[in-house]
């Protein structure tokens, strides 16, 4: 913690000059208090406390890396006005503390046989543990299923899938859903237009 | 189609239709997993010279297979730990209403995705927010205020069983 202090001081004049700094700090503080209050189930409660270590420079680094994950350390250092050594150290800390989960290339689904985006709402016949676990295990095996969420509402799971064409989607549903005993009903929603699609978090 | 790719899936066998070979596919797979890997390490992983790898990555970028690179951030540490989906039904799908809708969803960073779908409703929206209050504020100011919105259904995510952007290649 104390090793980060020189960086902080060097970056302080810039941070103070940023009009949006206080707002995002407030938002962050809100998130932190909420984390402490609610997420007691996530094992290390110290993780929530250490997330409080994110300062304005960290947030700026995260914003830049979210937009350009392959930026050179030199450019990154220049962008936040720190030495490249301390920038490197900060990024490593952000990865170690779990603020950065990883880095990925964003690939073009239209050129890689994954141009068709299809959502599916799945209802289970009974929500016993065994049925739920079997379904989740089946979902994790299939790379065409990008997301699967257990939701509160009219159905049990929302799936986001990317496939080459409808035939591939049908094969997927057959393998994941119809081969399982507990699935009552699958509703399919093919996407005609992606108005917006990003993974970038707002902060 | 006589390529022997490691994936058994029928989908990935088609990938050479699109002008990428086995090595390209391997490069894409590695970069999808580790977007910040050094060129040297990438070269080692795919058993090519660093110059040849650099040239391939440049080509894959130029030809739009690679759209960019991003850090994957932890929503729980950035005030965005609640994920909510919204289904939106319009009164009628007139072009002016759809254009207004399209413009509105671009204005809010909490809306990560918005898709026009074929089926029982018109739009599916994916949002990440700090809490229910933030969600309410967002849906009230962005969605309910729009003309032509007949109904919205909210689905709060209780558990993210799986979340990735990685394409199957």
UniProtKB/TrEMBL annotation, chain B:
Entry-linked InterPro entries: AsnC-type_HTH_dom (IPR000485), Dimeric_a/b-barrel (IPR011008), Tscrpt_reg_AsnC-like (IPR019888), Tscrpt_reg_AsnC/Lrp_C (IPR019887), WH-like_DNA-bd_sf (IPR036388), WH_DNA-bd_sf (IPR036390)
A single cellular component GO annotation: cytosol
Keyword vocabulary terms for this entry: Activator, DNA-binding, Transcription, Transcription regulation
Source species, domain of life: Bacteria
Occurrences of domain HTH asnC-type (ranges): 20-81
Example of a GO MF term: sequence-specific DNA binding
GO biological process terms on file: response to amino acid
Name listed for the protein in its UniProt record: Lrp/AsnC ligand binding domain-containing protein
Origin organism lineage: Bacteria, Pseudomonadati, Pseudomonadota, Betaproteobacteria, Burkholderiales
């Amino acid at each position: 913690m104390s090793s980060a202090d020189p960086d902080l001081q060097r970056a302080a004049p810039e941070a103070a000059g940023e009009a949006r700094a206080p707002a995002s700090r407030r938002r962050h503080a809100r998130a932190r208090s909420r984390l402490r209050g609610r997420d007691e189930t996530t094992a290390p409660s110290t993780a929530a406390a250490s997330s409080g270590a994110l300062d304005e420079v960290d947030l700026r680094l995260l914003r830049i890396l979210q937009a350009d994950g392959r930026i050179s350390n030199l450019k990154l250092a220049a962008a936040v006005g720190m030495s490249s050594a301390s920038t490197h150290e900060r990024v490593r800390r952000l990865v170690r503390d779990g603020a950065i989960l990883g880095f990925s290339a964003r690939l073009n689904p239209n050129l890689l046989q994954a141009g068709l985006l299809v959502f599916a709402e799945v209802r289970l016949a009974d929500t016993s543990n065994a049925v739920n676990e079997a379904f989740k295990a089946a979902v994790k095996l299939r790379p065409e299923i990008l997301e699967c969420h257990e939701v509160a509402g009219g159905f049990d799971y929302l799936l986001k899938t990317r496939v080459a064409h409808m035939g591939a989607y049908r094969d997927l549903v057959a393998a994941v859903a119809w081969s399982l005993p507990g699935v009552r009903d699958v509703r399919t929603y093919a996407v005609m237009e992606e108005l917006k699609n990003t993974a970038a978090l707002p902060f | 189609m006589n390529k022997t790719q490691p994936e058994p899936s029928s989908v990935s066998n088609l990938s050479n239709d699109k002008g990428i070979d086995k090595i390209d596919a391997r490069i894409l797979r590695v970069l999808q997993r580790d977007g910040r890997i050094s060129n040297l390490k990438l070269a080692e992983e795919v058993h090519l010279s660093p110059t040849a790898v650099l040239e391939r990555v440049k080509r894959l970028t130029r030809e739009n297979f690679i759209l960019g690179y991003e850090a994957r951030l932890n929503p729980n540490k950035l005030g965005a730990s609640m994920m909510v989906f919204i289904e939106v039904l319009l009164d009628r799908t007139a072009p002016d209403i759809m254009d207004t809708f399209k413009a509105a969803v671009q204005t809010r960073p909490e809306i990560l995705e918005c898709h026009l779908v074929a089926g029982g409703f018109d739009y599916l929206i994916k949002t990440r927010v700090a809490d229910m209050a933030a969600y309410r504020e967002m849906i009230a100011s962005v969605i309910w205020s729009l003309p032509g919105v007949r109904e919205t259904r909210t689905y709060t995510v209780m558990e993210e069983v799986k979340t990735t952007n990685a394409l199957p290649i």
